[in-house]
Amino acid sequence: MRLSVAAAISHGRVYRRFGLSPRSRLDLLRNLVTALVRHERIETPWARADEMRGYAERLIDYAKRGDKDERAMRMADFWLTEKDLIHKLFKVLAPRFQPHPGSYTRLLQIPNRDGLDRAKMAVIELKGNPLPPLVRPRRDSDKTLLNQLLKGYRQDAQRAAAP
Amino acid sequence: RVSSDGKPPKFQPPPKPVIVDRKTQKEERRFLSPEFIPPRGRTDPLKYYIERKDMIQRRKVFNIPEFYVGSVLAVTTADPCASDKSKRFVGICIQRGGKGLGATFVLRNVIEDQGVEICYELYSPRIQAIEVLKLEKRLDENLMYLRDALPEYSTFDVNMKPVPRMAHEEIPLNKLQVRMKPKPWSKRWERPKYNIKGIKFELPEHKMKAAQKWSQPWLEFDMLREYDTSKIEEKIRKELNEELEK
């Protein structure tokens, strides 16, 4: 009994499969988008965060059209299950991202989940959020060649300026 | 006419005629043939650019008129077996498919009670002339349901005269609702996935309601499936206009 091989091939498919059905997949992503708009930084499995990223950025593009736009309002109404966030989307997030042409989110990987499934986790956040930054920009250590040369140059300059 | 003080009235020159130069006013073509718009995918845009150059070359030599799904066309192709070495077919365009040089259109007509559909390639060198007999649009992009409609909706006179049309007029939208033959049909046209507006469904209410079970209302909110072609279209339109002016 040979099961169909064609059903297992998914060359060129861009949308991942989540949940029980396409409707369920959209509901899942919708919950994540709502959570992102509410908390501005969430921690989920990497695949869900990656899938959700596109929808979140397109939602912000729609919000940039303004709340007078009928289609933008319908999209926001569908995608945000908690209706107080629609106000936040149009009045806070849209002006915040008005100067940027795209890429309003940041996706960073995290150590795997502690439970039995050891899932690949990620943190997705909206840029410009009020929370403390995830990545602290580290300066290079003093021992690198460039820094040593610069240190030597600074010391020479001080010695020349001192007397 | 009685003059003011006995002398003949002062000569009033007639007002200068305002010459409205139609040519400079609006000459840009606002219609972009759908096969120029590249589909969404991972193919290299170079392929579409090269195809577009070849399409423009062909269009400079041979005139492909503007037409839509639902317009009646007459196509003359070259045929070695015919006595005149050419064949003429008249029909209504039911579908325009393909992108680039392989763009096709299907013409349908009913000849001696037999429905005939011929799929022609727009850029094939065998095509000698394409004439638009009646330019109009219909409510749908795809008129495949005419196969299951009554034959009167697909019959067109082979010696039909072209319907005269003023330039710079709106393309007329034919809101005709077609009556169908009894079921079974080749496809279940009442289902929402086909989204057909041009059929007058005479099915009972419970059948129409049952068909709505297959509707996917979340699809219109699925933002990643949208393909916005406005910017691409503008670029291609400008490119086309420049090339064809040369």
TrEMBL record, chain A:
UniProt keywords, alphabetically: Mitochondrion, Ribonucleoprotein, Ribosomal protein, Transit peptide
Classification via InterPro entries: Ribosomal_bL17, Ribosomal_bL17_sf
Principal place of residence: mitochondrion
An MF annotation (GO) of this entry: structural constituent of ribosome
GO aspect biological process, one term: translation
Pfam families found in the cross-reference section: Ribosomal_L17
Subcellular location: Mitochondrion
GO CC terms in record: mitochondrial large ribosomal subunit
Domain of life: Eukaryota
Gene3D superfamilies to which the protein is assigned, alphabetical: Ribosomal protein L17
Record has Transit peptide as a keyword: yes
Family classification: Belongs to the bacterial ribosomal protein bL17 family.
Protein name: Large ribosomal subunit protein bL17m
Provenance organism: Rhadina sibilatrix
Gene name per UniProt: Mrpl17
UniProtKB/TrEMBL annotation, chain B:
The family this protein is said to belong to: Belongs to the bacterial ribosomal protein bL19 family.
Region (Disordered): 1-27
Designated name of the protein: Large ribosomal subunit protein bL19m
Gene3D superfamilies assigned: 2.30.30.790
Source organism (scientific name): Rhadina sibilatrix
Entry's Gene Ontology molecular function annotations: structural constituent of ribosome
Subcellular localization(s) per the UniProt record: Mitochondrion
GO biological process: translation
Predominant location category: mitochondrion
Keywords from the UniProt entry: Mitochondrion, Ribonucleoprotein, Ribosomal protein, Transit peptide
PANTHER family linked to this entry: LARGE RIBOSOMAL SUBUNIT PROTEIN BL19M, RIBOSOMAL PROTEIN L19
InterPro entries: Ribosomal_bL19, Ribosomal_bL19_sf, Translation_prot_SH3-like_sf
Keyword Mitochondrion (UniProt): yes
Underlying gene: Mrpl19
CC annotations in GO: mitochondrial large ribosomal subunit
